[in-house]
Design a protein that fits this description.
Elements (H helix, E strand, L loop, with lengths): L5 H7 L10 E2 L13 E5 L5 E5 L8 E3 H9 L3 H10 L42 H9 L4 H9 L3 H6 L2 E5 L2 E7 L6 E8 L6 E3 L15 E2 L3 H6 L4 E5 L2 H9 L5 E3 L13 H4 L4 E4 L5 H18 L3 E3 L2 E3 L2 E3 L2 H6 L4 H16 L11
Parallel strand pairs: 10-11, 10-12, 12-13
Antiparallel strand pairs: 1-2, 2-3, 3-4, 5-6, 6-7, 7-8, 9-11, 14-15
């Protein structure tokens, strides 16, 4: 059972907070000086806490439950009961305020309290009851897919790969701001095709509005990105590296064609070294040029090119290399060579793997 986070609480009321350790604008009230005075941090027991340097005590600090109570206008006990009834785990939920024991069963999956609001671009919100069903059901599709791709099924499930049907898996996308599920790309196991949930209304280009695929758990999505970032072309390639413990990998949401239109801000922010490991084919080279041009023109940064080479042979993508026998060391070696070539000197790849 996972604790409710400050980011999720703020999102329920249309507010936005940065990751733990970063300051944000105060979600509680408008201050005369519009500075980022609202800080978040981890308490001694690992609980997320907040403090605002512009608010007056005792309303300037507390945990996620207190923040929810203040934003909703409830007292702490009412807020706790409301969250419990909605299936949330919150700090202090083991014991109800004012009592020693709670009989409420732990939830299997979190869902937003007020539901997701329609996006201004017109794309329908993800049906979270459908996501929860896929998240919980066990039909064996993930295991079959993992065997085909030489991946660990248990690791894939931790990375939001779900059984949509007995012959199809779904790759779950999460909103980087809230950590909530926002998109599922469904792929049959035996053929290369896919469909997207939620369905976009007619005339809306959903691909242009899709987030990057972050092949990692919710902790990575909320914890910020590292110094070295690797961009790949597909979910399977991202999962291949991530399942081997190579972190900070992100995939284009809809293949090479989305390199020209997807929001790249999660890649740019906080990354001092960018590497492109898109497919080694004509479409992949075009995608790399798009990434290079956009990165240089908009951020003034260079993005290096990664190829999966071994013993004089070049593989098209990361999963093809994995199926041919690449191990973690082989992948890190290719990343190291690309990093050194991009920067012009030896790069410390210490943060590229767990």
């Amino acid at each position: 059972m996972r604790d409710l986070t400050l980011i999720e609480v703020a999102a329920q009321f249309g507010k936005r907070l940065g990751p733990v350790g970063k300051r944000s604008f105060c979600p509680l009230r408008e201050h005369k000086r519009r500075d980022k005075t609202f800080g978040t941090f981890l308490g001694r027991d690992g609980t997320q806490m907040f403090k605002c340097w512009s608010c007056d005590p005792p309303y300037n600090s507390g945990d996620a439950l207190k923040l929810y109570a203040m934003l909703s206008g409830m007292d702490r006990k009412e807020a706790w009961k409301h969250l419990r009834d909605q299936g949330y785990a919150v700090p202090g939920m083991k014991d109800e305020p004012g009592s020693r024991r709670s009989s409420s069963p732990p939830p299997k999956m979190r869902t937003p309290i007020q539901g997701q609001k329609p996006k201004p671009d017109g794309i329908l919100p993800l049906d979270l009851s459908l996501w929860q069903k896929w998240y919980e059901q066990r039909l064996g599709a993930v295991e079959r897919f993992a065997e085909q791709r030489k991946l660990d099924p248990n690791q894939l499930r931790k990375l939001d790969v779900v059984d949509v049907a007995a012959d199809a898996v779904g790759f779950g996308y999460r909103d980087p701001d809230t950590g909530l599920p926002c998109r599922v790309k469904v792929r049959p196991i035996e053929r290369k095709s896919f469909w997207i949930e939620p369905r976009a209304p007619e005339g809306v280009n959903a691909a242009a509005k899709s987030p990057l695929y972050m092949a990692h758990s919710i902790e990575y999505a909320m914890g910020g990105l590292g110094v070295i970032m690797v961009v790949l072309e597909g979910e399977v390639d991202a999962l291949t590296l991530r399942s081997l413990g190579i972190k900070n990998v992100i995939s284009l949401p809809d293949g090479a064609g989305s390199a020209s239109r997807v929001d790249l801000s999660p890649v740019w922010i906080g990354s001092s070294l960018l590497l492109s490991a898109v497919d080694a084919d004509d479409e992949g080279e075009k995608a790399h040029r798009e990434l290079f041009d956009r990165t240089y023109s908009q951020m003034g940064k260079t993005i290096g090119r990664v190829y999966w080479d071994k013993d004089g042979k070049r593989y098209k993508d990361a999963n093809e290399a994995r199926l041919a026998g690449f191990d973690k060391g082989d992948f890190l070696g290719c990343l190291q060579r690309a990093a050194d070539a991009t920067m012009g000197f030896a790069v410390n790849m210490g943060n590229a793997a767990e």
